[in-house]
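Why this split exists: single-chain examples teach little about how molecules sit against one another. For that reason, every record in the complexes split bundles all components of an assembly together and asks for one structure covering all of them. Below is a record exactly as it appears in the raw files.
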Amino acid sequence: MTGSVAIAKVKIEHVGVTFDRDGKSTHVLNDITLEVAEGEFLCVLGPSGCGKSTLLNTVAGFLSPSVGQITIGGEVVTGPDPRRIFVFQERGVFPWLTVEGNIAFGLFRLSREERGRRIAYYTKLVGLEGFEKAYPQELSGGMKQRLEVARALAVKPDMLLLDEPFGALDSITRLTMRRELLRIWESEKKTIIFVTHDIEEAVQLADRVVVMSARPARIQQIVNIDIAHPRDISSPRYLELRDSIFEQIGIAHKI
Amino acid sequence: MDWNRQVGKRQLGPIAFIAILLIAWQIGVSRQAVHVLPTPIQVVRGLAELLSRGLLVKYIVASLFRVSWGYALAAALAIPLGLAVGWNRRAGLAINPIVQVVRPISPLAWIPISILWFGVGDVSSIFLIFLATFFPLFFTSMNAVRNVPAVNVNAGRNFGLSTAGLVSKVLFPAVMPQLIIGMRIALGIAWLVVVAAEMIAVNSGLGFLIVDARNAGNRYDLVVAGMVMIGVIGLLLDIGMRSLENIRSVRWGYSED
């Protein structure tokens, strides 16, 4: 079932995370071992609160694993790094900066000309032209989320780590955003780890879907999605893969 | 047009109400045989007298001078300290008990000590204003930092900011809306306290005017004139501070959403 990994970009080795709070320790992640290939689109799927966000936070370097280690491109992760940008669930954009200001946020080391070029390019890429001077408050949820993706891409990271980025959007916007993300992924060739609790979303987007168990999370199964993009979400293969994951998670797919 | 008319209507109410109150005051007081209050006309005459003697401007400037110094010193100390303590949980735990004990002591309780330390004069009243505004500013800054969403801080770290960069580019803009509200409240407190401070410690200012007018011949018209000026200037200060809330990069902090 596990797809052979060409070049391992990310190596997660026997990672466990335990939180100590008020003398009680909570086991969140249990012996996670996983490799992510260069340029791969990987979805991590699991029930709410299972610890999939915790896994993403340790890959990002916001959290250190209690046991095990994570290496990216051969280097052990010890903290956050602009080469891998985390896209947050919601409200990740800075409300005190304009669209332009947000995109320019990570570009402080660049020359003024280069900064201007990147702002123009990524504003256009995510379809926010004409809103350069607008504040996030004046944007819709979908626009804010696109702005956050643009801010992440503008620093030209190797990797994007997305934590249920479209969870707060309405279903129509969510579909559009998925298509946009795939378009950007194909044109920018980033390695993407995408955390979601939405089975459909995972099967629509990913090369591989990592199915996590309830807490303490371990990897239950890894499913290869061997359908080319653009995916026909009524094709037999799509439905077969989707239903196998539904079964794996233990939900009947009838309402 | 429509908008103008609406504003006009909205202002009509308060203006009419003030006019009615003034007329009632004038009539009510002039019918009394005993001297309870000066009439509004006497108060206006009193203000004119102060203005012509050059005292009005002098006293206002003196009061504003003390407020500015006390307030600025408190802000310069309390805001960075509050931000630092809010940021550092351990520092917060260490400092909290002392601050909680000192805070409920009215600044006026410090009057004897401030006279002992600084004598009777400007420094004493500046010190009292400093004390009165230090704690509100400190607590606002501390809480504002604690309310900064972890998402913003993590995003800042993710883009490779140094600690200094994180403070100036994330922390500071993130606390600004709350800080402005705290600064506005603190300025209101400073203005309340300057009057009390001037009543005992100095020989100029609006607080001094009120005590002096009573002592020097029961000039209640001047007492009320001083009170009116305090009210008007307090209102203007508040309007000034409130206008900061319209700065575009802080407006997000006041939205309903």
